[in-house]
Structure formats: C-alpha cells, structure tokens
Input
Amino acid sequence: MLNIGILALDNCVHSSVTGTYDVFTVASLKWQELHGEDMPFLRLAIISPDGNPVTAFGGLPLPATRSIDVSERYDIMIVPALYGDIERIRWKNEICRELARQHSAGCCIATVCAGAFLAAEAGLLAGRRATTHWALADTFGKRFPEVQLKAEKMLVDEGDIVTAGGVTAYLDLCLHLIRRFGTAELASAVSSTFLIDASREAQLPYRSCSQPKNHTDTEILAAQHWLEENFAEPVTVAHLAKLAGLGERTFLRRFKRATGDTPSEYLQSLRVEAARHILERTTEPVEQVTRAVGYEDPSSFRRLFRQQTGLSPSAYRKRFAIRV
Output
C-alpha cells in the first residue's frame, strides 16, 4: 500500500492540496473496484509542519491530519502550489529538511507549480531537470542556475523527483503518479471520473508574452515601446538603434542585456502574441492573420507559431477560441 503525504503550508493554493487528496482518494476506490480487493491502494495524510491547520492563499483554513514526524516514511510526498514570496513561508527550513530526509529514505518528491522552489531549496534539484509555472521561470532560473529548467514542459519525471508546471498541473501530476505507481487502467478510470485531459504535455500554449520592462535603460525602453506599437511594420536593427540614439553594436548588446532577447526574438514574441489574440477572437484565415502581424509567408509563420506555442495556429484557435 502506497503511503502518500501531501504538505499543507501557509499561502498554498487550497485546491492543490484538497484536489490532490480527492483524486488519490478516488484512485484508491477505483483500485478496489477494478481488482475486487478490500485492501486500499494507498494511505493519505495531509501534513502541516506542526500538525495544526494552515491558512491557504485566499484566507481559507486548511486542516492537517498529522505533523512532520521523523519516524514516518512516505513513498510519495507532494509539495503543493504556493502563492507569494517563498522566503516568507513559515517553517521553510524545517520543510526543506523534511523533504531532504524523505528523499534520502527513498521517497519520491513531487511538486506542483512554485512548490519546485522548495525542492530546489532542499538541494534536491541540482543538476536535475525540473519544471515550474512558466511565469516563474525567469525567477527560478536566476535563483537556481544549477537546475536544468524545462519550463515548456507540463511535467518532468526524474524518477525520484517529479515536478509539475502550473497550479492545475496537480491533476496531470496525480494521473502520472497513479499510472506510474498503479496501472494505466487505473489512471484511465480516474481520468474518466474527473474528466481530466490526460494529453497535456506542454505549458507553451498557455504562456502569455510579458516583455520585461523592469530595467532602467531608457533608450532600450523607447525601442521596446516603438516595437509594441509597430510590430507589424518592417523592422531593422539600424532603425531601432537610430530610435534609441545608439550605435548598432551598442544597441544590440544593451537590448539583450535589458530584455534577455535579441531584437529579432523580441519582435517574434510580440508578433506571435498578437496572432494569438487574433486567433482567439476572430475567424480570420491564417493567411490573413499572418499578414496582420507582419509576415508574408504563412508556412514560415506556422513554423514559428508552433515553435513558440507548441500548437499550429488552427489547433490553437480550436482550443482557445473565445466563443461569443
């Protein structure tokens, strides 16, 4: 019987604890139905550092069924999605020590969204592949450069460490663990019960383009603002450098330092983001969308769009179109 512990921490996302608990509870019931056994598939505990209730993000209370116990060993320990500054989590050091202790005893550590920060703080991700919410990727990468971050992935399984991307990726994580520690048949039964899409593999389709402007390079900011207003027009480095009042080599160096992208990469992101909005809100043909965002060749645009979103323009529209 699997022994699974789900951490409950102040400012965690309530559903990433209770939703995980619900999915695994149903998995245990389905196991008994499928195998005709009285023995449950797993045992669950919601663990807070001291055994007392915590206050989840949004102010909802979240009770725990037990505290951290050095005598207890779990087969799987799940770190929930967290909201806000990781440094402000109470008991952070104790939690990291517990994760490291469980891991060294053979426990599989599984994280959801920003929960990956705690696994990294515990030293469990150094030199390993991992994912987290796409919007946290830059912060995570700067804080833990030793981790091979795969923020485009919905799920990364390193065997003894499994990390999941966004908040609702706890559903993907649960199904994956049920399939891995149980059976594909069990995972299918749980997926059917909860109507979970078991085919999500990437975060790219959900990622929005948020260009960095929290730097102090005013000349580069001027170029960024011009690009955002004129992204569909022909653009050259010479013109951008002139707008910024800089030489081309200086402009390229400072643009990359300020934004993390070359001007070409930055422009591509702006155009793809604009295309996403058009695809979501209109029925314009892809060829027309291509021209509207500054490209002439629909085939090249389709390749670029797939590269940045993981979907073709048509598949993106089918999934994300806003119905009115």
